[in-house]
Specification:
Layout (H helix, E strand, L loop, with lengths): L1 H10 L3 H13 L7 H13 L3 H13 L11 H9 L2 H20 L18
């Protein structure tokens, strides 16, 4: 039922609904999992400036999850697009004092991609 309401709103161009529907397709929640359809809806949301969609796509292309293959050509484009968002800038200011300490304590954790938010798949 929720899927139908998200679909209706997404088809009318509602960015949050497009994000939610895309995420549902990635996870197979309420619909058959379909990474291509998930990415299609996430891209539509991202094209409207949805920062969480931009971040999620960057994470998917970096890590290759939920049927989406890691893509070394696409990943830096989406990471740069995410770095230009207000969400990234806010998170960077909040995290910066802790990054050096975290890197020393847990060097295996790798690069921080930003703040936790809805639908993030970053570790």
């Amino acid at each position: 039922m929720a899927t139908e309401w998200y679909r209706r709103a997404a088809e009318r161009g509602h960015a949050d609904a497009q994000y939610n529907l895309g995420f549902m397709y990635l996870l197979g929640e309420g619909v058959q999992a379909n990474p291509n359809e998930g990415l299609r809806w996430l891209r539509l949301s991202a094209d409207q400036g949805d920062e969480s969609a931009i971040r999620l796509i960057a994470d998917l292309y970096r890590d290759g999850m939920y049927g989406v293959s890691a893509d070394p050509a696409e990943e830096p484009l989406w990471q740069e697009r995410y770095r230009m968002t207000d969400l990234s800038q806010t998170c960077h200011r909040q995290l910066w004092p802790n990054v050096a300490l975290l890197s020393k304590q847990h060097p295996q954790k790798g690069q921080l991609s930003g703040c936790p938010n809805r639908g993030t798949l970053a570790s």
